[in-house]
Here is the input.
Amino acid sequence: MTLQSIPDFHSADALTPIAPDVPVHNAKALTGGGALAQIVLDGKVYALRITRAGKLILTK
Here is the structure.
């Protein structure tokens, strides 16, 4: 798999995944329009934050 530049679309529906079997999710939809979402993996809770600068931070 190679890295590719992804255009700045406002909808995940408009994006083409890097590979056909890779799901695409809109971060704003994951956070319910806010700036924070909790993601659980193997019983551990992670925080996904959208910063004021529009960057994503995932922390344990």
Remarks:
- Residues 43 and 60 are 11 Å apart (CA to CA).
